[in-house]
Write a structure and sequence with these properties.
Blueprint lengths: L6 H10 L15 E6 L1 H5 L10 H13 L4 E6 L12 H7 L7 E5 L3 H13 L9 E7 L2 H8 L3 H17 L3 E7 L3 E2 L3 E2 L2 H13 L4 E6 L6 H11 L8 E5 L6 H10 L4 E4 L19 H7 L6 E2 L9 H14 L7 H23 L1
Parallel strand pairs: 1-10, 1-11, 2-3, 3-4, 4-5, 5-8, 8-9, 9-10
Antiparallel strand pairs: 6-7
Helix pairs in contact: 3-4, 8-9, 9-10, 11-12, 12-13
The structure holds 3-hydroxy-3-methylglutaryl-coenzyme A (HMG).
Enzyme class: lyase
Family: Belongs to the HMG-CoA lyase family.
EC number: 4.1.3.4
Length: 356
């Protein structure tokens, strides 16, 4: 059950007063929340129409990092026949600035994707490297895994085991994803035991963290808590991340429920961009701006490099900038409210000036 004013927040505020706690040890007993910005990958992969040019994607990545983001998904090495928008990810990696200490993750679905990435890294040897992290992904239902990866869950795990091994052997960090952790667009309600088993296997493969995806964006906070309680029977909550889409408008509430359950890493997307091509009808990820706003004046601190956090006002501007490049408005509620307030303030200033 949601207990946002009780035990976990008290623990969080107690740890806030402990100066010996560092960002590096941020885990479920800490009040530090890590954001993984997935806008350039999950956010853009579902865009219809022509492929967004790599220079625009690279500029998005750079702007996000300038706003304080330290973990950003820069793209995917997947089949362009399956996800055309992710073609050109190699170019994005080469064009973006590579800041030390920032993790620019890339999704790989199979050995081919990893091999292509390793070839790029060896041809562009530089310090720091273009990326130090890959994400591998599977799901909690066979139907979704078939739609997304053209194989069963078991086959995907068999395929991903050597991919993770090779990535680790080449000095890359490996993050894992389990999709459809609450509901599947093809088979409905998901068995949380299956989520637990798959998350456990990903961890055993060497993933430093497993992100739990409510791909459909249908979960409620109570379901999120129930699901995390089941998964954390086998996987320490400090190794889990929450990844919520906002189809039914519950994503911010689900983030708070995940934090209340002890999770301290949240995936989010600037401007609320996104959607999975294989989850029909699902909308974008929870907007990064909305998460940052919801955690203001709370016992939680969001980690980042802009004065120790991520700058909300800058993120709102980026959300508007990229949305307008895509020909629409930002869908972040907070981004829209910030812009409306600014417009109001400017109008009032203008009125005051005209009275002088
Ligand atoms: C895994 C495959 C390739 C299997 O697809 P397949 O058709 O079974 O693969 P295949 O081995 O038969 O290859 C088919 C063609 O793709 C090529 N190919 C094969 N692999 C690659 C590669 N890595 N990069 C580039 N090309 C590749 C391969 O060379 C061949 O080319 P052809 O001979 O026809 O010209 C395909 O299903 C695929 O790419 N799937 C990716 C789907 C995807 O990216 N989905 C979105 C990301 S997951 C997500 O969004 C959820 C998440 C993470 O955000 C969390 C959440 O919200 O739940």
């Amino acid at each position: 059950m949601l207990r946002l004013t009780s035990r976990s927040l008290l623990q969080a505020s107690r740890s806030a007063t402990n100066p010996s706690r560092t960002l590096a040890t941020a885990a479920s007993s800490s009040n530090v929340v890590n954001i993984v910005e997935v806008g350039p990958r999950d956010g853009l992969q579902n865009e219809k129409g022509s492929v967004i040019p790599p220079e625009l994607k690279a500029e998005l990545v750079d702007r996000l990092v300038q706003a304080g983001v330290t973990n950003v998904e820069a793209g995917s090495f997947v089949s362009p026949k399956w996800v055309p928008q992710m073609a050109g990810t190699a170019e994005v990696l080469k064009r973006k600035t590579t800041e030390p200490g920032v993790h620019y993750a890339v999704l790989v679905p199979n050995q081919r994707g990893l091999d292509d990435l390793l070839t790029l890294l060896s041809s562009e040897s530089q310090s720091p490297p273009l990326t130090d992290e890959v994400s591998i992904f599977t799901a909690a239902t066979d139907a979704f895994t078939r739609a997304n990866l053209n194989c069963s869950i078991t086959e995907s795990l068999t395929r991903l085991t050597p991919v993770a091994r090779t990535a680790l052997d080449n000095g890359l960090r490996v993050r894992g994803y389990v999709s459809v952790v609450i509901a599947c667009p093809y088979t409905g309600k998901v068995d949380y035991k299956r989520v637990r088993e798959v998350a456990k296997e990903l961890l055993e493969m060497g993933c430093y963290e497993v992100s739990l995806g409510d791909t459909v964006g249908q979960g409620t906070p109570f379901e999120v808590e129930e699901m995390i309680a089941e998964v954390s029977k086998d996987v320490p909550v400090s190794k889990l991340a929450g990844h919520f889409h906002d189809t039914f408008g519950t994503a911010v509430a689900n983030v708070l429920a995940a934090l209340d359950s002890g999770i301290r890493t949240i995936d989010s997307s600037v401007g609320g961009l996104g959607g999975c091509p294989y989850s029909p009808g699902a909308t974008g990820n929870v907007a990064t701006e909305d998460v940052l706003y919801a955690l203001q004046n709370s016992p939680y601190t969001v980690a980042g490099t802009s004065n120790g956090t991520i700058d909300l006002s800058q993120m709102s501007d980026i959300g508007w900038w990229i949305s307008e490049k895509l020909g629409r408005e930002s869908v972040s509620r907070v981004g829209r409210a910030i812009r409306a307030r600014r417009t109001r303030e400017e109008q009032e200033k203008e009125k005051a000036r005209s009275k002088l």
